[in-house]
Amino acid sequence: MTRLAAFQRVVSQYADIADFLVVYIEEAHPSDGWVSSDAPYQIPTHRCLEDRLRAAQLMLTEMPGSNVVVDNMDNSSNAAYGAYFERLYIVRDARVVYQGGRGPEGYRISELRNWLDIHS
Question: Which family is this sequence assigned to (predicted)?
Answer without folding.
Answer: Belongs to the iodothyronine deiodinase family.
